[in-house]
Design a protein that fits this description.
Two copies of one chain form a homodimer. By secondary structure, chain A is of the alpha+beta class. Helices cover about 45% and strands about 20% of the residues of chain A. At the A-B interface, β1, β3, β4 and β6 of A face β1, α4, α6, β5 and β6 of B. The structure holds a DNA duplex.
Chain lengths: ~150, ~150
DNA sequence: AATTTCCTTGCATACTTATTCACATCCTGT
DNA sequence: ACAGGATGTGAATAAGTATGCAAGGAAATT
């Protein structure tokens, strides 16, 4: 339940302004997540969100990438890292997997996918906030989808 | 006096970690600025600082997005509006719908489609003059195509 | 099955930050 | 010099956030 809630929070923050935890609580309740402020405080901490003049924001929206904050700097960022920073949602249609990200997050995610050269992935196309991942066939796409989803929810 | 204090705060934040306003108060006092927490709260607001997992940080240091923070306008334009302005042609292939637009028109069209969250649309990717709309399956794509075509021809 | 262990959560409350109010200071035009 | 109006500040306090603790539940172990 917690993981879905975290994703719901990411989507909410990407789409609307959230000034405080009680407002977040009310918005989540409308989406079916009924939790208390205490839980949200812990969620926010775990998700490493930032709070600024415009309310809460995702770590990536500030350039406050977890990597930048925590030292390690060699080699390009892994798919897992960029997904954690930018990805909001993963969907699939036929042999394609669609990754929605925060604004500007699509390029880094696609770059990481390209770099890792997953065997089932034929290619990627990135816009501003959407990555299109072309897979060999629907079956492979399903695998890629579940792998990405797992990363997103970890 | 306030201005020097603001600069001192900036320097402090650039050089060390500050996790709360009372810590900031003590560090400033060592530099000769004796003020209360209330004043620092106001300073932080005026300077539009962010607070995150690592304490306070400067807005400049992180490429903070002005779009997200500022300005409420009256909602994004509808698909119908942007289609009327930019779209030239609508085609379909398998589960994908391709919208050709005038140069530079793809982004706005994709943004509007994303915003309206059509249920059959899994995602969109926009280049300069082409929007690729990924649908759940060929049937849904046909529906989306006809809907877009209808808009285009109205 | 029973027990243990680990995780998640709500409640109550401690801690941190924002705001209200009152007052002092410094302009500015009379 | 004085009245009126900004602006900056501290003290008190309201508003918002984090956390210790215990309860409940799921999964693993005995």
């Amino acid at each position: 339940m917690k993981l879905q809630r975290h994703n719901a929070i990411r989507e909410l923050l990407a789409g609307s302004r959230v000034t405080n935890q009680d407002e977040l609580r009310r918005k989540l309740r409308r989406r079916g997540f009924a939790v208390t402020q205490a839980t949200l405080s812990r969620d926010i901490h775990e998700m490493r969100l930032y709070k600024g003049p415009g309310g809460y924001s995702l770590p990536a929206a500030n350039g406050h990438t977890p990597a930048a904050g925590t030292g390690e700097d060699d080699g390009p960022p892994s798919v897992a890292e960029v997904m954690a920073s930018f990805a909001l949602r993963v969907n699939r249609a036929m042999n394609q997997v669609i990754v929605h990200t925060v604004m500007g997050g699509a390029q880094p995610v696609a770059a990481a996918l390209d770099y890792e050269e997953w065997p089932d992935v034929v290619g990627t196309v990135a816009g501003d906030d959407t990555v299109l991942v072309i897979c060999r066939d629907p079956r492979k796409a399903a695998e890629v989808e579940s792998r990405l989803t797992k990363i997103l929810e970890s």
